[in-house]
Write a structure and sequence with these properties.
With 396 residues, the protein is α+β, with helices and mostly antiparallel strands. Helices cover 15% and strands 42% of the residues. It has helices at 2-36, 55-70, 119-124, 323-326; strands at 80-85, 88-91, 95-99, 104-109, 112-116, 129-133, 137-142, 151-158, 171-180, 193-199, 204-206, 216-221, 226-227, 235-238, 242-245, 254-262, 265-268, 271-277, 287-290, 294-296, 301-309, 316-320, 331-341, 344-355, 364-372, 375-386. A hairpin with a 2-residue loop joins strand 25 and strand 26 (375-386). It binds 2-acetamido-2-deoxy-beta-D-glucopyranose (NAG) (2 copies). The site of one 2-acetamido-2-deoxy-beta-D-glucopyranose has 3 residues, from loops.
């Protein structure tokens, strides 16, 4: 009997635990649902304006979320517009053409707006340029425009007032504006010629910019007079920038210029004096070796540093050695020779530091620094100078 009553009791207990669990589980999703769609359930309709009637607020926050999510996919130029006249706006694209002399008015949407204009305009055209900030946008006005005002105009709007907003919070708009001048096909520059260094491993720009995107532009050598082929791979042309030499070579050195033609007009650009500088692809990685790691007092020894690299690249060696403290003058010999390794022609450059009649002070670390136009590489070794009396005789 007793065991039966006990069994019944425990069965009752089990049932109540299960039902409590079910209630608990049932409640949790309900609570979550309530938070998300507070005013959405039909059973909870409240008169507008009643306390707890959160419908308008919930909708608003949802809208804000949607807008934020959509913002990154908007075109970058969407905050920048061109003002055509009173209340007439035009979204700007990648580039646009205006006539030199025409006024320009741009508008950038945002609370805190910064503008960037071509360098020439920033330096020389301040009195023709006016920027005004309003509560929700900023306005850029340019009067008496010239072909030299051709270039990129951009603005960016920050969300935060104090300028501490992260860069990715800012939105940007930009466009390239050509101010076409029927008499000047090239954006004028101050210099009659410009020296351009051609480094063997670095693309270089010949910045002959045109004022009219319709101009036909070619690249020419002054002497012998010939057109330089532009294949889009080794050399390419961008109407907003000029010619880019992607793979500089020694044969391109000399005087080059750009030629623009449009209608019956043909004009040449500033001359570019191209100087070719053979540039190493990497800094030297020297190796160091002493003629002996342990020498006796009074003996001669040497330390040699070598660097393998591309031919015709100058390598300079600098030594640091313990004898410097003794006032020992450096006795160094240097060489460079062409070697073939795995079918490749390479240059081995080297430097040998000779130490005569070793003294105790010559013991220590020997450092060689090998430098080319790309940088410096370092190698070290250790030489020990011992007294002959300390050297145990070799076993016979
Ligand atoms: C623009 O050009 C006109 C006519 O040449 C001149 O009177 C005016 O001062 C110029 N404005 C500015 C801001 O340079
Ligand atoms: C060390 O070098 C000097 C100069 O080359 C030479 O005169 C001298 O004999 C050498 N000494 C020894 C121990 O080899």
């Amino acid at each position: 009997m007793v065991s039966r009553a006990c069994c019944w009791l425990s069965w009752c207990l089990l049932i109540s635990v299960i039902s409590a669990e079910v209630q608990e589980h049932g409640r949790t999703p309900k609570a979550q649902k309530k938070r998300g769609f507070k005013a959405a359930s039909p059973g909870e309709v409240k008169p507008p304006g009643a306390p707890g009637g959160k419908k308008p607020e919930a909708d608003l926050s949802q809208k804000t979320l949607q807008m934020e999510a959509a913002a990154p996919s908007l075109p970058a130029s969407s905050i920048l517009t061109l003002v055509l006249g009173r209340g007439r706006f035009q979204k700007v694209g990648d580039s646009l053409s205006l006539r030199a002399g025409d006024p320009l008015e741009l508008r950038c949407r945002g609370k805190v707006v910064h503008w960037r204009v071509p360098v020439y305009l920033e330096e020389e055209g301040k009195e023709r340029l006016r920027i005004k900030h309003f509560s929700r946008h900023s306005q850029l006005q340019l009067v008496n425009s010239t072909g030299a005002d051709t270039g990129e105009y951009s603005c960016w709007a920050q969300h935060c007032q104090d300028g501490e907003g992260a860069e990715d919070e800012a939105r940007q708009g930009k466009t390239f504006i050509f101010f076409t001048d029927p008499e000047e096909l090239f954006v004028p520059t101050e210099d009659y010629y410009k020296v351009v260094q051609l480094h063997s491993h670095q693309p270089v720009l010949l910045p002959c910019q045109v004022t009219n995107p319709l101009a036909h532009v070619t690249l020419h050598r002054e002497f012998p007079p010939e057109e330089v082929p532009v294949d889009g791979i080794d050399i390419s042309f961008d109407v907003k920038k000029g010619f880019t030499i992607h793979r500089p070579r020694a044969s391109l050195a000399g005087a080059l210029f750009c030629l623009a033609s449009l209608g019956g007009l043909r004009q040449i650009s500033t001359k570019y004096m191209l100087i070719y500088i053979k540039y190493p692809s990497s800094s030297p990685k020297p190796t160091i070796q002493a003629s002996a790691t342990s020498v006796q007092l009074g003996e001669n020894f040497s330390v040699t540093c070598t660097a393998l690299g591309e031919p015709d690249i100058a390598v300079d060696f600098i030594w640091e050695h313990p004898g410097q403290k003794l006032g020992r003058p450096p006795y160094v010999s240097e060489w460079a020779s062409v070697v073939r390794q795995e079918g490749q022609v390479q240059q081995e450059a080297g430097s040998t530091l000779h130490v005569e009649e070793a003294r105790a002070g010559d013991s220590g670390i020997y450092t060689c620094r090998a430098t080319n136009l790309q940088g410096t590489g370092t190698a070290t070794t250790h030489v020990r100078v011992t007294r002959s009396s300390h050297v145990s005789p070799a076993p016979s």
